[in-house]
Structure formats: C-alpha cells, structure tokens
Specification:
The model is unreliable at 58-64 (pLDDT under 50). It is built from two helices and eight strands; from the N terminus they run αββββββββα. It has two domains: 1-42 and 119-145; 43-117. The longest helix is centred in the first third of the chain and has 39 residues, at 3-41. It has helices at residues 3-41, 121-144; strands at 45-51, 58-59, 66-67, 70-74, 77-81, 96-97, 100-105, 113-114. β6 (96-97) and β7 (100-105) form a beta hairpin. Strands 1, 4, 5, 6, 7 and 8 form a six-stranded antiparallel sheet that branches. α1 (3-41) runs antiparallel to α2. The chain is α+β, with helices and mostly antiparallel strands.
C-alpha cells in the first residue's frame, strides 16, 4: 500500500475508534444509571396495583416492545404506571396474581413506579456490550500505529 492510502485508512480507523469509544461510554452510562436506579428501587415501599389493560399485556410489533399499564392507589389518590423496570422490559419478570401486581413506588415521587427490581440479564448484557465496544475500539487504535 502506498503511504497516501495507508494514511486514509489510518484516519478511517481513528474515526471508528472514536465511534467505538463513544458507543462504549453511552452503553456504560445508561446501563450504570439503570443498575443504580433498579437497586435503589428494591428499598421502595411496595403497594398493590391493578393491571389496567383489557388483557394481561398489550404488545406492539414495533421493536418488539411490550406495553403494560397498571394503576395503584396511595392515600386515596390514583396513580398510573407503565414502567416494568429500569432497563427491564421483559414481561415474564412481572409477577401477576389475578390481575394484581406488586408495585414499587418511589417515596419522593409517587408517580415514579416499577414492577421489577434487581440486577437482571439485560443489565449484564449492557455491560458486556460496553466492554465489547471498548475492546473493539482499542483493537482499532492498536492497528493505527
């Protein structure tokens, strides 16, 4: 390869190094935030909630996202929620008993609630992806020298 072409490839590898490090950082920050929130939610007060959807689950084919709507009552005021968990979107994690669910409610903001808490596989996968992008970025960086 000529030095001119090698220089272009070097710039391209440096660009992809930057993208990999950016992706690794974003995955790590988002996953870390979700882990901290879901672990703190384990200490929130638990209320009894009722599934609002006509069926147990309402799902859409777009991005394979599942929507779950539930309501709970605190001090005579009704609140609604849709969040399954921080970084958790699997319905099978939710424990449903005769349309009743356990709702973990933030004591500082009663409208903030989740149905599932704890460190789950999705958090581990986010950390793995972060590490994978970091490894790929440094592999590309090593090749630019």
């Amino acid at each position: 390869m000529t030095p001119e072409i090698e220089k272009k490839y070097q710039r391209l590898r440096s660009f992809f190094f930057g993208l990999c490090i950016l992706a690794a950082g974003l995955f790590f920050l988002i996953t870390s935030k979700n882990i901290v929130k879901t672990l703190s939610a384990e200490n929130w007060r638990v209320y009894s909630g009722v599934l609002e959807s006509g069926d147990k689950i309402r799902s859409t084919a777009l991005f394979r996202t599942t929507w779950l709507k539930y309501s709970y009552e605190i001090d005579g005021k009704k609140y609604n929620g849709t969040r399954i968990g921080y970084g958790i979107s699997r319905i099978d994690e939710v424990q449903v008993t005769d349309r009743t669910v356990r709702v973990y409610v933030n004591p500082e903001d009663y409208s903030d609630s989740v149905l599932v808490t704890g460190f789950k596989n999705t958090h581990f996968i986010g950390l793995l992806l972060s590490g994978g992008f970091m490894w790929l970025g440094f592999y590309l960086w090593k090749r630019t020298k």
